[in-house]
């Protein structure tokens, strides 16, 4: 089963790369802040890694460093990985040591091997052996970083996941898909009309979004492998804000077909449209709860915009946010415990907040001023969002404790409307 899951992962990843045309602009990442209790990890250069298209050890270091959870110790090159002096590495301050090798195979593939060693207990914590095609060498490095993150923190790593976002240059719009580190950018859709609100399907093979190519907002679902598109909502008026149910069978959307914008649910093939919310105000930006039982949404039914929760089938809604008079764009963590949202306090800046749903405790995570479109990493540890920097839209990532911040910028155009993809099974 593990082999089949890995194969599916590679097929989907390959399909994304083959089906989409390459983008030119690459993103640059700036990191500030570190996590509490950083784990010191020594990462050695992988033996013969220069034969591969990507430098495995450098990608692993960058992933771990970007997370803020690790203090990276450069281990240089280790000539004999079978006779490790654990005491020496422990004295250098390393709790763990990463070693590995890359071998070019006769059929054009690469054999990538890695071991994670515990310097304190003087033993092996983990290992992975992967034989893969050249285009998957970056992915193999991300998967190794995921394994290190899991073994040392107890939380599944999200380095091998993907993100989607919209790039705008003048009147040209692109829906782009990239690795979580901003590399490997692929264009899924080009348009001369706006593209907004992309949303990943739970299996990572499709993205729902709103396109204005028909001179009005219409909700589409696009298969990223085949590029086939399905119209999911093209009702009278506005069709917006698609959000997938956790099982991938339905979407929640915001439609104005009956007057005021309200929340509806619809099957992923566009059938079975059903109204879920019922108010005299505007109900929009629906988001399914992690268990699929509830839908969170933004409504102005109490005067200003606030976030509410109702049963997925409809019915009475309960208000969730009470801090401040303007709260929008709800997003729920994968464990269902944390709500991320955008808030404007005292008529000031739009900033990213999180709310602990059990305790009601709020925390502001950003120090920027024009935040929008938050999206949790699939492990719930980070939030990707759009913000403004020097009159240009860019992407940012912040850890849920607010300690680690990243800024993803590109030389060309504005990047906005981000969404973080799921774990690839």
From TrEMBL:
Assigned protein family: Belongs to the TolB family.
Subunit architecture: The Tol-Pal system is composed of five core proteins: the inner membrane proteins TolA, TolQ and TolR, the periplasmic protein TolB and the outer membrane protein Pal. They form a network linking the inner and outer membranes and the peptidoglycan layer.
Residue intervals of the TolB N-terminal domain: 27-122
HAMAP family xref list: TolB
Species, as recorded: Rugamonas rubra
Signal sequence range: 1-25
Entry keywords, A to Z: Cell cycle, Cell division, Periplasm, Signal
A Gene Ontology cellular-component term: periplasmic space
InterPro entries: 6-blade_b-propeller_TolB-like (IPR011042), Tol-Pal_TolB (IPR014167), TolB_N (IPR007195), WD40 (IPR011659)
Subcellular location(s) per record: Periplasm
UniProt key word Cell cycle: yes
Protein name in UniProt: Tol-Pal system protein TolB
Pfam families assigned to the protein according to its UniProt record, in alphabetical order: PD40, TolB_N
Gene Ontology biological-process annotations: cell division; protein import
Main location: periplasm
Record-annotated membrane-spanning stretches: none
Annotated function: Part of the Tol-Pal system, which plays a role in outer membrane invagination during cell division and is important for maintaining outer membrane integrity.
